[in-house]
Design brief:
The chain is an alpha+beta fold. The protein has helices at 13-29, 69-80, 110-118, 148-170, 219-226, 281-296, 308-321, 332-348, and strands spanning 40-45, 48-55, 63-68, 97-103, 131-137, 182-185, 200-203, 230-247, 254-263, 269-275, 299-305, 324-327. Helix content is 33%, strand content 25%.
């Protein structure tokens, strides 16, 4: 994570000490030795509903992932059902979760090294030595530091994870896999149940992906655009996406939304628009279309968009502009331009 100008959220030192102590206890247990990503458990308490999964069975990333609320749980269930894939370029800004990752000292963020010095933290023994590092993920935002509520939630969740991992180890035959949609939840009011039989299995069904609402503009805003000449044979690709470019603004850095418009036949870029934090992707695409129409002085006969949800969100607007909207599985010109933008951002560090 790049150094940010935005300071981490304030968390009391005593809470950090408690969190790191609990993380080391979890690390010493090393439940990834006998658990894999099918061993998911659920919680519903003062911190809300969430699912947790031990990670590290493959020996690459060691830790605990906690998926928060309906957005986080929906993300995990869709991942398990392979409706979204780990290599999906949009996966980072879809998550609502907190991750504990045990990393080598050289991989710690500067802020984490400073914090661990302040509280005189000592990691668990081992070679190589690994240090706890926590990430907060929220949809649309860059990975960030925990706030006080997330820190306390992780203390409570790690304690339950330690309990759950011990039960799975002691009762290897009791954890019967019941399908990707059924998850064992801790019994209400019990932090340390005596056996896995005390857990209640709940069916968890992923919700359909959220759809942006239709873009609606006042007639006055459309008047000038409707009067532009139309090139009916001209086809544009129009889309919007969250990019790796990070906007370093309070309360926490977020990913920039970028809209692009390109010629579907020769691939040239007509223009782009950078959306605001609270703009939807459909808003960003519509503003991109508006800007390019005004800049180039004509309306295409057709625009191609990359998803049904985008087509639905832009349908009313494009009907008013007398532009046909077509959903396409691939937008080659947009994909090429997006790849160039992401490569440039990676070079800038």
């Amino acid at each position: 994570m790049r150094k940010s100008k935005v300071p981490p959220p304030p968390v009391p030192g005593e809470m950090w000490i408690e969190l790191y102590r609990t993380a080391v206890e979890f690390q010493r247990l090393a439940p990834w030795r006998w658990m894999d990503d099918s061993h998911i458990f659920g919680l519903n308490d003062r911190h809300g509903v969430r699912l947790a999964s031990v990670i590290g069975n493959l020996g690459e990333v060691l830790g605990l992932a906690v998926y928060l609320g309906s957005a986080g749980i929906n993300y995990l269930m869709r991942l398990l059902r392979r409706e979204i894939l780990p290599e999906d370029p949009d996966i980072t800004w879809m998550q609502n979760s907190v991750l504990l990752d045990f990393v080598r000292r050289g991989s710690l963020r500067a802020e984490d090294r400073e914090l661990q010095r302040e509280i005189s933290f000592q990691p668990a023994p081992g070679s190589p030595r690994r240090f706890p590092q926590f990430y907060s993920y929220r949809p649309g935002y860059a990975p960030w530091f925990l706030d006080a509520g997330e820190a306390q939630m992780m203390v409570d969740t790690l304690r339950r994870a330690i309990c759950f991992a011990g039960l799975v180890r002691n009762e290897p035959g009791a954890f019967a896999f019941k399908g990707q949609q059924k998850i064992p939840f801790f019994p209400a009011g019990e932090d340390q149940p005596e056996n896995l039989a005390a857990f209640t299995w709940h069916q968890v069904i992923p919700e359909p992906p959220r759809v942006d609402p239709p873009v609606a503009w006042a007639k006055g805003r459309l008047a000038g655009l409707c009067g532009l000449p139309q090139r009916r044979q001209c086809i544009w690709e129009v889309d919007a996406f969250s990019s790796p470019m990070i906007i370093d603004e309070p309360p926490r850095p977020y990913y920039a939304k970028v809209g692009l418009a390109a010629d579907a036949q020769d691939g040239r870029i007509y223009g782009y628009h950078a959306g605001e934090l609270h703009d939807t992707l459909a808003d960003t695409a519509a503003l991109t279309l508006e800007k390019c129409l005004a800049d180039h002085g004509f309306r295409p006969g057709t625009i191609r968009v990359g998803s049904r949800s985008m087509a639905m969100a832009l349908a009313s607007l494009c009907t008013s502009l007398r532009i046909k909207v077509v959903e396409c599985a691939r937008l080659p010109a947009i994909l090429e331009a997006r790849a160039s933008l992401e490569a440039f951002d990676a070079e800038q560090g």
